[in-house]
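Explain this record to help learners:
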Amino acid sequence: MHKLKLVAVSCLLSAANAQPLSMWTQVSGVGPPARSLHSMCYDATREVVVLFGGSNGGQLGDTWTWDGTSWTEQQVPGPPARDRAAMAYDAARREVILFGGATATTSWAQDTWAWDGTQWQQRLPVQSPPGRRECALAYDSRRQEMVLFGGDTPATSWSQDTWIWNGTTWSPRLPLNSPPPRKWNAMTYDARREEVLLFGGVGGYQYQYHDGTWAWDGSDWREKVTATRPRGRWLHAMAYDTRWSAAILFGGRTSSSSARSVWWWDGSAWAETIYLGSRPGPLSSESHAMAYDEARRTTVLFGGSPGPSDETWLLDRVPQPSSYTTYGQSCAGLALDAAPGAQPLLGQTMTSEVRGIPAAATATVMSLGRSDLFLGPLELPLSLFFAGMPGCWLHHDSVLFDPAITIAGTTGRYDLMIPNRPSLAGVTLYLQAWVAAPGATPAGAITSNGAALEIGEAVPR
């Protein structure tokens, strides 16, 4: 019963259009020269963000690290200068892996390089994916292997092959299902769902801007169908915020313009964020690179176009505040309010109290709704005089009724488990108690005042 109730509440809340809150902060100081089409990832062993290459009128081959305060160039030999390469951190081997890209001598590099925090070393596997650029690479932590998908190859401008790096060699996978061919797709690993997430890219004979969300489970791809999602795009970037257990998508080019929006993925739904603060974020929203800095719990973005840019930006999610507000009239002294100390927060139980329950009461239920403005064509609040309940009012649209109220004397306790889904942050839910009390009104029923619960977020530890 508890599980069915949680599902029903989740469906009720999902009908709302929640928007998480985000804030951009620009970092001042000297950093890498301006660039776009570069590669970047977070090195968990050294607790730094690693940046390599890119383009600024010519291809670059420099290596930089970000320690949360400043950028430092690593004066070491490395891969030949290139742009449009794929790069990710291999946690099992504690090294950064870089593959492919376009260099001065080839448009489709096929070499594999590893960075151990001190030096780059070229790996010479017995098998490699065909040379390519504009593909995506992500580390699958559960299976301890790299996953590569898509890209522009000598054979096709948009591929759909899947390759795995196990620390020694590359091997192809032949999944039953696969995303359509594409290049310029972005990927990240969803640690909570233990799957590689893919979004966007461009490809196909009609140059389609893909807007599908795909997940790799180690053996097959499956598309996740969502009611709301970002517009199809390419030249965007993705990262995974371990603090909030959500994937982040920023920027890219759509069929009509550049996109400067930030989207969060909670495993089942996309939600576009609302920016806080005076700065709307980086103007360079294409061909940038992004990585989540786990040590500092912030997302780092560098460079991009138009420009190219030499700016460093930090993206942080701001916890959505919660509130519990009572409103409207009750009848026969029946009062609804929050239990002391209770707050409507994601993943937690919100306890309400119903006070003044008549001794003759035979049943008590809580109604839940989405709107306090209208019930179909009728405006709210609505007098229940016509129903034989003079002095009583309907305060919301009463979509769901739940009898799970625990009674002790004249007080009832109602526990509402709020699903831990980030896309529900900021959603407002309405409550009202109904009590069957013979003799209290001609209809033998009374109602409480209303309560509006704005769902907030506890700051993750």
